[in-house]
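2024-03-11 09:14:02 INFO worker-7 job=invfold-0412 stage=load source=structure_tokens
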């Protein structure tokens, strides 16, 4: 666990165990006892520390994607972390936009993003799009991208 000021950063780890011929996956949240109460008591100080920790995770993730030969044009944080409503079980939801994704099939995009997540071992849930796909989706009624990107709490990141 990393220590940031007086708080341990929360990490979700995937534990793999062998159980009677089956491989079982377990998710566990590691956090110091009392952190949740400390965060409640600290109010906005804890929120700003959490925001700094999330921003570091996002930048580490984008660098990990870049190390796989993908130049990230833009990335957007959405969901609980963007709204300031995250708790210890919240994932970091990202939309990753890159022209380099146009050269690869969908399965390869997921492979690259999955390797980047594995490299930083943080609970990042990325979605991959090309700029052209985003542009087309923004013109269509009732789709996820058109709903998420204009939200005021959606935060843009670039390397």
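2024-03-11 09:14:09 INFO worker-7 stage=emit residues=159
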């Amino acid at each position: 666990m990393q220590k940031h000021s007086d708080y341990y950063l929360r990490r979700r780890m995937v534990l793999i165990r062998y159980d009677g011929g089956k491989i079982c996956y377990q998710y566990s949240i590691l956090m110091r006892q009392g952190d949740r109460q400390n965060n409640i008591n600290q109010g906005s100080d804890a929120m700003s520390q959490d925001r700094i920790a999330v921003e570091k995770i996002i930048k580490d993730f984008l660098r990990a994607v870049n190390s796989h030969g993908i130049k990230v044009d833009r990335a957007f944080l959405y969901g609980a972390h963007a709204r300031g409503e995250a708790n210890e079980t919240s994932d970091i939801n990202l939309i990753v936009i890159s022209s380099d994704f146009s050269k690869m099939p969908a399965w390869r995009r997921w492979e690259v993003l999955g390797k980047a997540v594995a490299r930083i071992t943080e609970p990042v849930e990325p979605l991959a799009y090309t700029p052209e796909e985003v542009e087309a989706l923004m013109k269509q009624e009732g789709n996820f991208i058109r709903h998420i990107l204009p939200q005021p709490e959606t935060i843009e990141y670039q390397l």
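2024-03-11 09:14:09 INFO worker-7 stage=report msg="Residues 1-43 have pLDDT under 50 and may be disordered."
2024-03-11 09:14:10 INFO worker-7 job finished
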